[in-house]
Task: inverse folding
């Protein structure tokens, strides 16, 4: 029999509790809770770190941080998504054993930064990778800080004005499945196909796999109105082989999408449910 163990930051449960309205026409929607045997709620030993959305800006609408990042020793790739440009920033000199020994860091790096023009200003937004690392691999957070600091400085050089949002829980979620990695990838592909959402394999070897999993079109228009939500969804999922199966981990998008736009209550609740059900079904 397959089994899964869910590990969810306790602060998310508190956040979800605040979603339940008691009357009136504008209350937030109730967060749907699992009605099956799925574990739900915090693991007593699970850390409860937070992460903030940093938004940098410049009145130079032609601002481009690529040269400064490359000069600082990073490899930079860019992907266009509507009005947004998503940068994947990879340290050029990284100990490969770090990511092998701390597989959760594959959810943190490459570092992701969203660029666009907003109200006549060039902007760059990102979730602090150190806060994300503290949620996934807390012992490696200091090392992530050393890898990220030059990139942070290069971005600040390009975009001199900065604003940091309110901290939100960094809701790392993990399921332990009895399935071997290859079988779990296949089950995830089936679950994604069933829901008619894209699944792309970014990297894969015998011990690890990193995927991106999309979401239904139902809330795409709402999310597109706040383009930086693409820092949280589609969701990156990492699989790592373990002694008795495979661990599947990802950042639940509920609080991260809320950090970008708290008004997207219905959409972020639906995304959280979508990914929870897809992963649970596969694992």
Result:
């Amino acid at each position: 029999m397959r089994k899964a163990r869910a590990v969810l930051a306790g602060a998310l449960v508190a956040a979800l509790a605040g979603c339940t309205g008691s009357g009136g026409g504008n209350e937030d929607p109730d967060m749907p809770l699992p009605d099956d045997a799925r574990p739900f709620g915090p693991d007593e030993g699970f850390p409860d770190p937070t992460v903030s959305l940093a938004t940098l800006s410049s009145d130079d609408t032609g601002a481009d941080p690529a040269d400064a990042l490359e000069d600082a020793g990073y490899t930079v790739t860019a992907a266009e998504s509507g009005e947004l440009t998503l940068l994947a920033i990879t340290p050029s000199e990284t100990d490969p054993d770090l990511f092998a020994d701390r597989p959760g860091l594959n959810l943190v790096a490459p570092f992701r930064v969203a660029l666009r023009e907003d109200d006549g200003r060039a902007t760059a937004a990102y979730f602090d990778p150190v806060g994300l690392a503290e949620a996934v691999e807390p012992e490696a957070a200091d090392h992530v800080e050393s890898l990220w600091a030059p990139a942070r400085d290069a971005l600040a050089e390009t975009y001199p004005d900065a604003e940091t949002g309110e901290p939100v829980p960094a809701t790392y979620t993990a399921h332990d499945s009895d399935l071997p990695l290859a079988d779990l990838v296949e089950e995830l592909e089936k679950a994604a196909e069933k829901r008619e959402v894209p699944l792309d394999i970014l990297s894969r070897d015998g011990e690890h796999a990193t995927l991106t999993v999309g979401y239904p079109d139902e809330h795409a228009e709402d999310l597109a109105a706040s383009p930086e939500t693409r820092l949280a969804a589609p969701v990156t999922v990492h699989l790592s082989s373990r002694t008795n199966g495979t661990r599947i981990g990802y950042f639940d998008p509920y609080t991260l999408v809320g950090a970008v736009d708290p008004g997207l209550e219905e959409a972020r609740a639906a995304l959280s449910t979508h990914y929870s059900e897809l992963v649970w079904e596969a694992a």
Observations:
- The chain has a mean pLDDT of 84.
- Residues 1-49+170-283 form a domain with the TATA-Binding Protein fold (CATH 3.30.310.70).
- DSSP finds nine helices and 14 strands in the chain.
- The radius of gyration is 19 Å.
